[in-house]
Amino acid sequence: MIRLFVALELPEAVRSRLALLQGGVPGARWSTDEQLHLTLRFIGEVPENVANDIDDALTEIRAPGFTLELAGVGEFGSKKPRALWAGVRPNESLLHLQKKVESALQRIGLAAEERKFSPHVTLARLKAAPQEKVVQFLTHHALFSSAPFEVSRFVLFSSHLGSGGSVYHAERIYPLEVSGEW
Known about the structure:
CATH topology: Cyclic Phosphodiesterase, Chain: A
Helix content: 25-40%
Oligomer: single chain
Strand content: 35-45%
CATH architecture: Alpha-Beta Complex
Low-confidence stretches: none
Order of helices and strands: EHEEHEEEHEHEEE
CATH superfamily: Cyclic phosphodiesterase
């Protein structure tokens, strides 16, 4: 069995900006530089033969590259926050790519993702974080935005649990179309 997800990598300059946000919330387990990404579809644990089918399905995706920008911060969990995240400025090309990934995975028999796609980059997982510190974090970083960056590929990652949290490994990289190609 192998635990998989499909995601966009972030350029080093964007990851560096995100790292500057990390701090000030007791009980937060901040994402490492290597853990910062934008998930298009969490797949979960699958047998090796299904992983091969996933790779074949993702290889067939044709979508144009695009420019993306992170904007704002938020939390999941409301009264009991469990994660802090950086948001994404609305982007039709991102939604188009995510729908293509979802459709390709459903065609090979994977169950549909039940949650609505909410593009974000997880900054921290929270355990018993004081509500007032979470609110301070959200207020202080509300106007966060990254410089626009080019998205020219998406990645199939494997996830392995380690002592410092999950360790991600790029299993396969899938290029997006560049103007005039394909």
